[in-house]
Amino acid sequence: VNAILLSIGTEIVAVPRRDTNSQHIMEALAAIGVEVSGIKLLADDAELIAAELRAAQLHADVIIATGGLGPTSDDLTRQALALATGRSLNRAAELVREIRGRFERLGRFMPAINDVQADLVDGAIPISNPNGTAPGQWLLWDRCVVFLLPGPPPEMRPMLEASVLPQLRERSGRRVQRTRVLKIAFAGESAIEAVAAPIYQRHPGVRTTILAGAGQVELHFAAWAESAAAADETLNGLARQVRAALPGRVYAEDGAALHEVVARLLAAQGLTLSLAESCTGGLISASLTEVPGASRFFRVGYVCYSNDAKTDLLGVRPELIERLGAVSAEVALAMAHGARARAKTDLALAVTGIAGPEGGSPEKPTGLVFVAIAYPGGDFVRRFVCLGNRARVRAQTETLALEIARCHLLGLPWP
Amino acid sequence: VNAILLSIGTEIVAVPRRDTNSQHIMEALAAIGVEVSGIKLLADDAELIAAELRAAQLHADVIIATGGLGPTSDDLTRQALALATGRSLNRAAELVREIRGRFERLGRFMPAINDVQADLVDGAIPISNPNGTAPGQWLLWDRCVVFLLPGPPPEMRPMLEASVLPQLRERSGRRVQRTRVLKIAFAGESAIEAVAAPIYQRHPGVRTTILAGAGQVELHFAAWAESAAAADETLNGLARQVRAALPGRVYAEDGAALHEVVARLLAAQGLTLSLAESCTGGLISASLTEVPGASRFFRVGYVCYSNDAKTDLLGVRPELIERLGAVSAEVALAMAHGARARAKTDLALAVTGIAGPEGGSPEKPTGLVFVAIAYPGGDFVRRFVCLGNRARVRAQTETLALEIARCHLLGLPWP
To answer: What is the pLDDT of residues A353-408, one digit of tens each?
Structure first.
């Protein structure tokens, strides 16, 4: 089974890097044995899109087009499919009601132009969109099945998952690809490669890719087999060997982000957390509260950007800041203890550092950070110098802080 | 003048991110006034490539295909062009000599299969490749000009520069493209379209695209003219009319993000800010402190996830929370006043809401948020229902809060 993807929108042709949908869909299809032979990025031009749909239909079993389903005059994918197939475009009364109902429930006025989102190509079946107003649609066109999905990834992805993949899984009976991603925080790419390469070189049938960024390393493994179970078995063996070579360091194999792993551990252990952030400015609080149900463990985040705030909010003594500087191990520890006492939480994490571009000095360079944790009966502080620009220093500091929390929660040695 | 790009190679379809050629060529063409209307990433399949060349030839004045010119059996672009045009493929004796000479000069043995790189489609003119063995070729195919270039960027780019762009510059009349992006926060796509469309429809020479996401709308304009100054003049006029039709709503034309605009205004006016965040969990603090020099205006961020934290940190009366709920206009205002008083800042922004997926009720649905601002001598609170999942609710809430701050700082009516 063979697919061609169309990513539609003049802005995508202007900046091809913006097309994240093709990559996502390609990976989802590979996992169910559907091979992508072509990807087309097309401007909002109905004639062009229609011609490209016709050319794709000659070669592909499956066409998935994303984008161009909005209400405005440059959203032309529906019209293009009608043009390509020579079928009419009909306004579906029940879809009009649904779209209007959505606006009404939100207490908003619906501009009349939104009605065009209810247009279906003759014979097409609507695909509901729980996260937006534009429904999708799918159509059998001779031996080819065509799916139209909206472009915004938060709308497209759940629709792909719920309505496209199950149907295609039926159609493809080919070899199955399974993937596994092992994530390691606060580690360098070459150090991990040195340990892991001898292992994955013994598995030549598995495709391995190493990705590194912001103090994290990801090992991506892809295996093909006759069945998902057989591919999983290969990956299980490989993952077991990597874990044994890097004890305690692999924090996720299921795609979870580090903040999700820490959130799960806190929730499972029934512990509460507060945060005191200086250079990260709320980044760590924002990550942890991104997780649904964060209120079970997250109490308070103090974003103490100024020295006064560190004193007023957390009780850090001004003499300490004056003597050792706000960026020091002692101030990081005082922030953690202050947050833990004032927020009355089991744990507190604190970070202080120089994110740059200003504020560095020979003794305290840009990128210098201290991360502290306070817990019942103890504390710990780690000094580190991050490389890179302001955004990278902040991201690496977040990774270090979350990894310190993970090690505490699992009783692992400090990173 | 209108172009379609083909990026050929099975590895490119497997990882679309790897296709850096399209982005590079698209930018080079835009600069000389050639518009790209489609980009195709295609697997090494001669029939597929031939069909896609034929479809492109119907719509484009220019086709540039990169990749598939190597010597191995999966390099099929030459054959595909012969197939598409119905012309023969002839081995050019002088190209064979050139390719062999290159190997000899490097003191290497040339495998016989390299001879196929000397195959030219009937009527095609070779394009020399100073950095590799695969020559390119170009061909007039009815009214369309087709260029075949090798895939490796270090070979492709100099050939594009030396042999493709000069020819296309002639054809396009050296027209220059300039672009402008107008950003509008806390607005719906269709509402902005309704106001802006009558304006940009009066400028048919300007290509307009509307992008929407997380409570923001972007109007992208691209104009072509004989000179950059002339294109800028067109864009200036168009932007002036849009600003006049949407008074005060366009927050940036220079690519700045909303948090950067708010940060600039605070720094310029010498005002300080504190934040009280519930459902956004530190997201707004993290954005504002992303801006270098944020310590000039940013004092304290309170991430008050629990009701107790709202009381302890900000002095919100527990009876108020009990009577009206933590997600209410009154609590949002009390949070803002509490933050402003305790952090001793000129302004304070506060947000409280239900980010979901849990916590909603018929009277207070998921997505309901209140955003408040407290300033010297006054306050303001806005109720809003956000669409979408937890991440989108949080992102839209951030946009609304920052837009309220921007309106206050510029003396604009509340959004």
So the answer is: 999 888 889 889 999 999 999 999 999 999 999 888 899 899 999 999 999 999 99
Instruction: Name B251's Cβ contacts closer than 8 Å, sequence gap at least 6.
Output: B183, B184, B185, B258, B261, B403, B406
* Parallel, antiparallel or unpaired: strands A347-353 and A273-277: parallel
Contact A250, A199 (CB under 8 A): no
Residue for token pair 């020819």: B167
- ipTM score for this prediction: 0.71
Closest C-alpha to B178, from B253, B110, B249, B103: B253
Any idea what DSSP says for residue B226?
Answer: S
Q: What is the pTM of this model?
A: 0.73
Give the whole-angstrom CA distance, residue B378 versus residue B191.
30
CB contact under 8 Å between A40 and B41, yes or no, is yes
Kindly report the number of other CB atoms within 10 A of residue A397's CB atom.
28
DSSP B218: E
Disruptive mutation site among A7, A13, A35, A108 for chain B (greatest number of B CBs within 10 Å): A13
Contacts of A304 in chain B (CB under 8 A): 300
CA gap A67, B246 in Å, rounded: 27
DSSP summary character for residue A163: I
pLDDT in tens, B311-326: 999 999 999 999 999 9
Per residue in B24-76, pLDDT (tens digit) is 999 899 888 888 999 999 999 999 999 999 999 998 999 999 999 988 878 89
Give me the residue from A11, A23, A36 closest to B211, CB to CB.
A11
Q: Going by C-beta distance under 8 Å and a sequence separation of 6 or more, which residues neighbour residue A300?
A: A274, A275, A339, A342, A343, A345, B302, B303, B304, B305, B306, B309, B312, B313
Rounded distance between C-alpha atoms, residue B243 and residue A147, angstroms? 38
**What is the distance in angstroms between the Cα of A245 and the nearest Cα belonging to chain B?**
29
Nearest residue on chain A to B37, alpha-carbon basis: A43
Residue A278 has which token pair? 């200086």
Query: What is the rounded CA–CA span in Å between residue B237 and residue B203?
Result: 10
